[in-house]
Write a structure and sequence with these properties.
The chain is α/β, with parallel strands linked by helices. About 40% of the residues lie in helices and about 15% in strands. A hairpin with a 5-residue loop joins strand 6 and strand 7 (about 145-150).
Length: about 190
């Protein structure tokens, strides 16, 4: 009798060990792994040559920028912000001090002083109109024409209306101040 009990006990433990990863995986929240798919500038331009055409959102940052890191850790980790960006934009991360050459429609852009620390990349200078502030967010239309630039750290609740204002083409229809007052978002701020 004890041998039968021991057999079933070992079988139970073995099955529990083997099946627990399956059950824990199936019960996990599918949004836990949801992240913004950051693209290179070239890739976003290339994707927009085909369907679906989307506006381009460019996060201009630097490696030393603390507010840029906070934006990544908070705002860009908010599930509502992630979903909205994924649905409506091609998202680009552009290091304003990159040493890489970026080619857009056959035209190369460089960091003219790559040996110097904190020297800026030509593309970042163009996108930010030489107003180098980090983080800054550049919004481009489907043809990669600038819409506007938003500088500075923003909480998810403050950033959500900006994304909607651009994605829904509301900047054609009403001033930002009017839109901002009437906007009702989904983000529940925890900061």
């Amino acid at each position: 009798m004890f041998k039968i009990f021991l057999y079933f006990f070992k079988l139970f433990i073995t099955l529990q060990f083997l099946l627990s990863p399956i059950f824990s995986f199936s019960q996990s929240n599918p949004t836990n792994n949801l992240k913004i798919e950051w693209l290179s500038f070239e890739k976003a331009i290339e994707l927009n040559k085909n369907y679906p055409k989307k506006k381009i959102f460019v996060d201009v940052y630097t490696d030393w920028c603390g507010w840029c890191k906070k934006m990544d850790a908070t705002t860009f980790s908010n599930i509502e912000i992630i979903r909205y960006i994924k649905e409506n934009f091609y998202a680009v991360k552009l290091n304003a001090e990159s040493k890489d050459t970026i080619v857009v429609d056959g035209k190369p852009f460089y960091n003219l002083n790559p040996q110097n620390t904190r020297s800026t990349h030509q593309l970042a200078e163009i996108l930010l109109n030489n107003k180098m502030s980090y983080p800054s967010y550049v919004f481009l239309d489907e043809l990669a024409r600038p819409i506007f630039v938003v500088p500075g750290y923003m909480t998810a609740a403050n950033f959500e209306p900006v994304l909607n204002y651009v994605a829904e083409n509301m900047y054609y229809k009403m001033p930002w101040e009017v839109f901002q007052k009437q906007f009702k978002g989904k983000v529940q701020e925890k900061e």
